[in-house]
Amino acid sequence: MLDILPHDGDIHEIRMARPPVNALDPTLVNALREAITQAPLNGARGIVLSGAQGLFSAGVDVPALLQLDRGGVHAFWNDFFALCGAIAASPVPVVAAITGHSPAGGAVLALFADYRVMAHGVYRIGLNEVQVGLSVPGPIQFAMRRIVGTYRAERLMVAGAMVDAETAHAIGLVDELAALEQVVTRSVLWLADLLKSPPHAMLRTRAIARADLLEVWGDTNGLLDEGFIDDFFAQETQATLHALVAKLKNKG
After folding, report:
1. Is the pLDDT of residue 156 over 80?
2. Where are the domains of the chain?
3. Which CATH class is domain 2-180+199-251?
4. Distance separating alpha carbons of residues 58 and 145, to the nearest angstrom
5. Is the pTM of this model over 0.85?
């Protein structure tokens, strides 16, 4: 489900490995949170979060989520928020190595990293939740606004837009583009260069720069709006999600 790969300079790569599309089910979400939390305790001075070549993560595992009752859905989203909070609060820098398409939950995870390197070309990224019948919770909207600005975030999220890599780079949603096979390498090199700085000064400055993010995401207990769970079980959302699952089954 996860591969932990060491790189020079005490950089740990956490690679999602849940075929076929790295869909975020409860087990993967909790494994990721544990790995991100434990990496600095195991000597990591920087973390690269990566996925499969061609697809970083397809986002939330909708078929698995539809099998859960209200308590299970609530627990899943609390765990997902806790994962986002763990990335936001990591005491060491995190780079999202976006190794391909990154819709919905995959894009959300990348928002909390220090830096985002994406494969250029045909790959797309975005918070397309509206297109599959889900709203975008306020705390996630905050994280998106922090990266691309208020108005642009509004337009992208309300439309549920997926943009290509070049557009994502132009609007600041990702920081750097690289050839698919070089995304992880570029992520490691960026971290290695950052880690050459005097560590106390760099980490202290980083903490100040990310204080606004931590003010919202430093403690995710109670961060999930109960109205989001109500929306998940609304007739429109359930119909849209079941239609999506049927479409995916037909493709399979």
Report:
1. yes
2. 2-180+199-251
3. alpha beta
4. 22
5. yes
